Amino acid sequence: MTTIGVLGTGGIADALATMFGRAGHEVRIGQDREVVAESAVVIPAVLGVQGAVQRLRPWRPGLRGKILVDITNPFTGGHLDFVGPWAAGGAQDLARAFPEARVVGAFKNVWWETFDGGPDSMAPVIRVVSDDAAAKETFLRLCGSTPFTFVDAGGLAQGHRVERMALSGEGGVFATDTVGA
Fold first, then answer.
1. Phi, psi (deg, nearest 5) at residue 151
2. Are 47 and 70 in contact (CB under 8 A)?
3. Which of 17, 30, 50, 55 has the most CB atoms at less than 10 Å from its CB?
4. What CA–CA distance (Å, rounded) separates 89 from 86?
């Protein structure tokens, strides 16, 4: 069994931990070193990629070979626009900061409310990006028992396109995958 560690204690951290727990995975949640040390997959559920970098920096050696899932989007404070240039992507920034980890970007094209799963909600297609094909395949397999559909959206360079889907209104339900490589 693969242990998934969710580093954080807010609403999205709780929602991801609950989702993966219901899917039958062992889940660790919290803000301490044990979450990183005891997990094969680490999801920092913190504000922004810079927040993730700062939070993970003390545990850099413990990330070696682990799947590190970036869920951040580079939104401005009011979630009306993005910080940084068009070609920048959070998962690429995280991969540069932690080259010893196997970085995967996911949950970037949907809002956190997606995980509330109200009675009228429809499960969106979640785009997953990574330059590490084996890490992406492993992550996609771990997500197979969740209520969402996950698709391979290409390499980390596609992350900036996927991130922008959240603000463009394209982050919701899709019949087919439209992200190009």
1. -130, 150
2. no
3. 17
4. 8
Sheet-wide strand order for 26-30: 26-30, 3-7, 41-44, 67-70, 102-105
Say how far apart CA 10 and CA 71 lie, in whole Å.
Answer: 13
User: The whole model's pTM is what?
Assistant: 0.85
CA dist 44 and 40 (Å) reads: 13
3-state DSSP of the chain? CCEEEEECCCHHHHHHHHHHHHCCCEEEEECCHHHHHCCCEEEECCCHHHHHHHHHHHHHHHHCCCEEEECCCCECCCCCCECCCCCCCHHHHHHHHCCCCEEEECCCCCCHHHHHCCCCCCCCEEEEECCCHHHHHHHHHHHHHCCCEEEECCCHHHHHHHHHHHHHCCCCCCCCCCCCC
Q: What is the predicted pLDDT for the residue at 172? A: 44
Q: Which two tokens stand for residue 57?
A: 């920096």
Q: Cα angle at 157 between 65 and 105, to 5 degrees?
A: 50
Q: What is the pLDDT of residue 85?
A: 53
- pLDDT at residue 75 is higher than 50: yes
Q: Please answer whether residues 68 and 57 qualify as being in contact, where contact means their C-beta atoms are separated by less than 8 angstroms.
A: no
Q: Rounded to the nearest 5°, which phi and psi values hold at 82?
A: -115, 150
Calculate the CA 152 to chain-centre distance: 13
